[in-house]
Amino acid sequence: MIELDVRRVSMSFGGLQALNGVSFSILGNELIGLIGPNGAGKTTLTNVLDGVYKPTGGEVWLNGQRIDGLPPYEIARCGFGRTFQVTRAFRRMTVLKNMLVPAMALHPMARQRDFHDKAMEVLEFLTMEHLVNDYARSLSGGQQKLLELGRLLMLDPDIIILDEPFAGVHPRLMGKIYEYIRVVHEQGKAFIIISHDMDSIFTLSKRLLVLNFGELIADGDPNEVKQDPAVIEAYLGEEEEEEGPVVIPPGRLVAAGETEEESDA
Amino acid sequence: MDGTFQLALRLIADGLVMGFIYALMAIGLTLIFSVLGLVNFAHGEFYMIGGYVAWFLVTKFINMPPLLAVPLAGLATFIIGAVFDYLLLQPMHKGEIERPQEYAILITFGWAFILQYLTLAIVGPWPQKTPRYFDLPTLDLGTLKLTGAMMKAGFIPISATRLTAALISVILLVILVYFMNYTWTGKALRAVSEDKQAAATVGINPRRMSTLAFGLGTMLAGMAGAALVPAFAWVPQVGVPATTKTFVIMVLGGMGSMPGAMIGGLIIGVVEALGAGLIPDAIRAYAYRDAYGLIIFALVLLLRPTGLFGRKS
Amino acid sequence: MKRSLLQWLIIAVGAVVMLGVPFALGNKPYWLHVAIVAYFYAILASSWALLAGYAGQFSFGHMAFMAVAAYTSGILGRDLGMTPVQSIIIGTLTSAVVGFVIGVLCLRLRSTYLALFTLAFSEILRLALNSELDLTGGPNGLTLELLVDTTSRVPYYYIMLGLLIVSLAFMYWLANSSFGLFFHAIREDEEAAAAMGVNIVRYKIMAFVVTSLIAGLAGAVEAHYIGFITPNILIIAQMSIVVAMAIIGGVESLLGAAIGAIFVQFMLELLREIPMPASIMPTLAQMEGTLEAFGLSVGEHGILTNAWRLVVFGFVLILTLRFYQNGLLYPIIDRLSRRPVLAETVAKRIQATEVES
After folding, report:
1. Measured between alpha carbons, how far is C228 from C71 in angstroms, rounded to an integer?
2. What is the mean pLDDT of residues B253-258?
3. Of A71, A96, A104, Cβ closest to residue C194
4. Distance between CA B50 and CA B54 in Å, rounded?
5. Among residues B56, B141, B255, B284, which one has the fewest Cβ atoms lying within 10 Å of its Cβ?
6. By the 8 A CB rule, do B110 and C317 touch?
7. Contact C109/B301, CB-based, under 8 Å?
8. What angle (nearest 5°) sits at the alpha carbon of residue B255, between those of residues B250 and B257?
9. Interchain CB distance below 8 Å, C185 and A90
């Protein structure tokens, strides 16, 4: 059972308080959306969880082990995977080599050949197997994004944080990414998805975390969170007095749990 | 005690004098760093060339007022720098270069190599001496005495050449401050160093500013060399310690901070002078003169990379 | 399979040529000397390429490691009476230790700062070597016992060639192993590599240790061949030459850097004197004054280029950097070395899906 425990995590840079006492827990393979206005601290939180930053306060526990302050490569080995807002594939390495890096990092004694099968499996799932020997830099932007996702799987993480996976993505690719998330989630992995794309967040996530100015202002069922006045204020800057369905820009109304037809166009 | 104190004061004065010249060079390098975002590994070579140009002008054109050699040397190094930037650095901004950060280091490193050996080939390895730019008038104002070659303030002697060099540096620094703060071009340069894209949106051409900044930076280095060339025997290798020293100052003062470069220059000048003069083993202390700055440099890089006043580029 | 056959053919031909060189040049010891120095630079250039081109650590302290090994070896030989072989081993280990320390210090430094720091380290070392007269002999340098007690250059030729082959083989093995994979990932994107589980601390330090060990070994052996070492080996121009050789040959290719070094060294030697027809020689002798104004001089058979050959070299470097950033040999090497390793795996999977359907 996956267990992530974030306890009163704070992060300050000089005088700037980027995170303030953020606490939440994940149990099992949850599918969580992390939203908040720009600058709320979502990427900072990811960086703290991933070990890029050492939190100035609080603790992070993963599967019973304390991980805050560990370097990123240790945390990756503990079962944490993440993507970056800007795609960061290893551009001048082949797709195959990209895939092999995390696999070999976790199993330094193995031979690279041992992982070819798994790499091909993942690439086939992403319909990228024909690109296996191409250099990553010759891939299109969307393909590079998929490569990043595939690379993550080679890490076999328990928890995956996707930082803006839908940003600037071609609609045809959206379906593929949705599928990826669904399939991998079913395999037992937990997801935290950071996105400004409210449609996708509401479609996919069963639980919503909302950050504002470094503080966690909401945590729960997406429908309820949507109507939480604090959340509305964070996004709109003023309190809404209306009852009834509330529109959170820029999306349409979507009830969580309803499967949305994934359009290919 | 009194003797050491006097010695210390003399050393500090010496150090400050050199410090102004170091500051001039460091500000040039800082200007390049803050506008172009790269470290010019050939900076010392421009200093060296500035010195040679001045030497050439002064010794071959005897009728020319010697001080004119300084701005002329600056012009020469400006042109060389601007051309270098235009031909070899601008392509980075046009996306023609893979891995631009590496490239910037290597190409300036390579340029330093060419400049040094080109100079060696043309001028030869023998040290060249340049005569003093002008003789000080003879004055006796009590504690302040001036003779042709020397000024003496109380017990502190300062050679005319160094004094001239320091004065030139101070004047140039003042002009530079005025330029950067009160002229349109200067303010445009500062704008580009803060935020390239924002500057572009208000109509400033960042590429032209880059070339200008590089040229100005190398011009300052050249003029520092021209100012100092009467004080030392000049060989093509003088650029190398100058480069490392300037780095040290830039890192100490804070990468990208011009006031930091100025203060850093003065500090290094003084540290060098004190280190060379006060450590008992005189010969060794003098030989390690350049090392003090380097050690400070290494420490700053490791412990406080942003330096005294710096900000990240 | 055709590709690897071609590779082996080239290597075989190359090996035969290089092994046979002393017989061809037996009566021209000068050129044997050039070859020995060329191999020495080849080791330096290729090890630097491993550090910089593969692992992305653009360190300018490479010559310093070499100097540490050479000086340690010389001092041990002089003060403790060790044989060259013993002192070389200890010297090499010392440079590896220094490499370790520098690697640790450089962990948090990014490209420009790393370059600056290693440059400073090299300069500090040079100053120290120049100043500690009792220990190091100062600017006049240190004499070392010859490795092989003979006046012939031939044994040294084979020693240096052997070192080159062994170190290249070792570095190639490293580069093709998971080390190489991690080095490459670190160079491409250090943060992403860490997020993928690559222990960047360990591998960055390892890059320094391995390359400083190789450079140190080569340096110590070279010093025992030439018979002395001075701090001048640490002047920045020397580091520039090594860097330039690696760039011209191809900074991301070990073999490219090595070939680049050998090529450059021979070119520099060939360019020392531009041969002129005997008929022109007297005229040239008369023009000596004019020539000297341009830094040239008159030799026995032609014009001596003096420092100009280095200027030419510098221009080649700049042009290569600007237009052939991956090295002049890159296109060839890339074509020869890209292995579609997955051919079998892909075939198997196609078979498997065919069976399923």
Report:
1. 9
2. 83
3. A71
4. 6
5. B141
6. yes
7. yes
8. 90
9. yes
Task: Report CB contact under 8 Å: C196, A102.
Answer: yes
- Section A83-110 average pLDDT: 90
The answer on pLDDT for C1 being more than 50 is no
Q: How far apart are CA B43 and CA B39, in angstroms?
A: 9
A200-209, B49-58, B134-143: which has the highest mean pLDDT? Answer: B49-58
What domain range is C186 assigned to? 2-232
Closest CB from B91, B124, B291 relative to C127: B291
B192 within a domain of the structure (yes/no): yes
Residues of C in contact with B52 (CB under 8 A): none
Number of domains in chain A: 1
Contact B110 C127 (CB under 8 A): no
C contacts of A127 (beta carbons < 8 Å): none
Residue B309, domain member (yes or no): no
Q: How many structural domains does chain C have? A: 1
Q: Are A260 and A251 in contact (CB under 8 A)?
A: no
Mutate to test the interface with B, among C104, C186, C189, C322 (most CBs of B within 10 A): C322
How far is C128 from C125, CA to CA, in rounded Å? 5
Output helix, strand, coil percentages for chain A, rounded to the nearest 5.
35, 25, 40
Q: How far is B78 from chain C (nearest CA, A)?
A: 20
Give the residue on C whose Cα is nearest the Cα of A133: C340
Joined together, the tokens standing for residue B165 give 């060099």
Residue C111 belongs to a domain: yes
Residue A98: inside a domain: no
- Please check whether residue C123 lies inside any domain of the structure: yes
Residue C252 lies in a domain: no
> What is the pTM for the complete model shown?
0.84
Residue C326 lies in a domain: no
Query: Which residue in chain A has the smallest CA separation from C348?
Result: A117
Give how many domains chain B has, as a whole number.
1
Question: Considering the domain boundaries, does residue B282 fall inside one?
Answer: yes
Nearest-CB residue to B107 (from C119, C236, C321): C321
Q: What local confidence, expressed as pLDDT, does residue A151 receive?
A: 92
Q: What is the pLDDT of residues C176-233, one digit of tens each?
A: 888 999 999 999 899 999 999 999 999 999 999 999 999 999 999 999 998 888 888 8
Whether C343 and chain A come into contact, CB under 8 Å, resolves to: no
pLDDT tens readout for residues C66-104: 999 999 999 998 888 888 888 999 999 999 999 999 999
DSSP A83: -
Flag whether residue A114 sits within 8 Å of chain C, measured between CB atoms: no
In a domain, A169, yes or no: yes
Q: How many CB pairs under 8 A join B and C?
A: 125
Q: In the structure encoding, which two tokens stand for residue C274, read together?
A: 């531009």
Has residue B69 been placed in a domain?
Answer: yes
Chain A neighbors of C184, CB-CB under 8 A: 90, 92-93, 97
**What per-residue string of b and e applies to A41-55 under the rule 16 or more CB within 10 Å gives b?**
bbbbbbbbbbbbbeb
CATH number at residue B219: 1.10.3470
- Chain C residues lying within 8 Å of B295, measured CB to CB: 124
Domain of B128, in residue numbers? 2-303
d(CA B31, CA B27): 6
What is the predicted ipTM?
0.84
